[in-house]
Amino acid sequence: MTQTLVPPSGGEKISIVNGALQVPDHPIVPFIEGDGTGPDIWRASVRVLDAAVAKAYAGARSIKWMEVLAGEKAFNQTGNWLPDETVQACRDYLVSIKGPLTTPVGGGIRSLNVALRQLLDLYVCLRPVRWFDGVPSPVREPQKVDMTIFRENTEDIYAGIEYAAGTPESKLLLEFVEKTFARDFDKIRFGSEKKSGDWQKRLESIGGPARPAPVQVGIGLKPVSYLGTERLVHSAISYAIREGSKSVTLVHKGNIMKFTEGAFRDWGYQVAREHFGAVELDGGPWHIIPDGKPGAGIVIKDVIADAFLQQILTRPAEYDVIATMNLNGDYISDALAACVGGIGIAPGANVNYVSGHAVFEATHGTAPKYADLDKVNPGSVILSGEMMLRYMGWTEAADLIIKGMNGAIASKHVTYDFARLMEGATEVKCSQFADGVIAAM
Ligand SMILES: NC(=O)C1=CN([C@@H]2O[C@H](COP(=O)(O)OP(=O)(O)OC[C@H]3O[C@@H](n4cnc5c(N)ncnc54)[C@H](OP(=O)(O)O)[C@@H]3O)[C@@H](O)[C@H]2O)C=CC1
Ligand SMILES: O=C(O)CCC(=O)C(=O)O
Ligand SMILES: [Mg+2]
Question: Any residues with CB less than 8 A from the CB of 103 and at least 6 apart, and which?
Fold first, then answer.
């Protein structure tokens, strides 16, 4: 079954001309409700977005929403988890917004979220992390956390190129490594029957069952390219220049994964030098954009990922714009979100700055245990919508959303996640929090 999309009447497409987004007064914006808590959150968020636009432009502008299907709703209605029409709509209408989509662990479908990012080549996952006054946080000085994550969105081990243990594909790869890279094959600890021999001895020593040692090795590939790194780091430094940021930090594990994560760091510095005229600072490896160039004074530095994850707790003020690879970016976004009071208000965008395509979405997932309870915080999708409005150039409406969020949090009428940590708070439902945001605009 296919999905028949009927564009809403009175709406027009957003387009891009010579690199500049052309946004009509009544743009058609496709939305995906999402799985789990997605529908609750979307119902609450769309009211906030519409209210902000109505208040800012008194009817002169409006968003013409067009539902497109993905995830469980799509599968139930069309037999397809990510129908072609959905991807095509996101392509045709340029700017869209989505709720979270489920990805099963271990088997089943691959991530639809990752698929959308890859199909539309949305190479930047942009996740700003800032503290809202009054939000309860596990750290002492959450106001010092003010970072913008640029996460590479199309490569790395996250691209999903991996083969299950025992399949012909993984066996073929094992054979290939054994024949071609004999020394490295030794590092695949249990890659052959011979090498699995002492497994049996160990099993006997702990009284385990006597059976032949299986050769079971799942194998994944981790592509990290110059071009992928260049467009990501270029976007991050350009953003830092536009926003007057102090630094851009390349976060990597390049001491261990030298030719993927280490290359990301080296290429990052190369981009800083070749595109922005950066020079080594005190003999390197850190760089600085010198006087006379746009962004003069911005420091380009790097840090190893594990050290970074402790320093965001101990020295967050030292970090500003973060450029990193796909998997690191995933971990870092949730960790930083926690520092400012949680994943419930962590927004994001997946963007291709050349084609203009952008899909806005929260950092969190479907939180399935809360599905259909009208309970969770809709702040993440509301703020993703705020990012979308700003991307469209509708800054007055975006500003109203920030005002509304500040007001709703200050009133201490908040969803369960904040209420359980905030003194004197009253717990409200997801939909009621949205009412509070609208009332405070
Ligand atoms: N972009 C996307 O579509 C994403 C999809 N996913 C998918 O989502 C599914 C579930 O993933 P899971 O690991 O449980 O992670 P989730 O982010 O869905 O949930 C983890 C926990 O985060 C808290 N949380 C999440 N959303 C909210 C919210 N809106 N308000 C308040 N608290 C919230 C809850 O914490 P508590 O229990 O403390 O109340 C929840 O139990 C998986 O299939 C995963 O693949 C995951 C991330 C992104
Ligand atoms: O695609 C998924 O299910 C998870 C994605 C995710 O965690 C993220 O992009 O932050
Ligand atoms: Mg994640």
Answer: 109, 110, 111, 112, 113
- What does each C-alpha distance from 122 to 15, 17, 283, 326 come to in angstroms? 16, 18, 35, 12
What pLDDT shows up at residue 197?
A: 67
CA of 56 to the centre of ligand 2 (A): 33
Q: Which residues pair with 302 in a beta bridge?
A: 250
Report ipTM (2 d.p.).
0.99
> How much distance in Å is there from the Cα of 178 to the middle of ligand 3?
35
* Residue 429 covered by a domain: yes
Going by CA atoms, what residue is nearest to atom 5 of ligand 2? 113
Which of 339, 360, 384 finishes a domain?
Answer: 339
Write out the catalytic residue numbers.
Answer: 158, 253, 306, 330
Low-confidence ranges of the chain (pLDDT < 50): none
Residue 129 lies in a domain: no
Q: Indicate whether 133 belongs to any domain.
A: no
Considering the domain boundaries, does residue 313 fall inside one?
yes
Number of domains in the chain: 3
Structure tokens at 272: 């800083």
Domain stop point among 294, 321, 339: 339
Supply the range of the domain harboring residue 180.
162-220
Counting every residue written for the chain, the total comes to 441
The number of beta carbons lying within 10 Å of the beta carbon of residue 188 is 17
Give nearest CA residue, ligand 1 atom 19: 367
**Does residue 330 have a known ligand-binding role?**
yes
287 among the known binding-site residues?
no
The answer on 147 and 31 residing in a single domain is no
**Nearest CA, atom 9, ligand 2:** 330
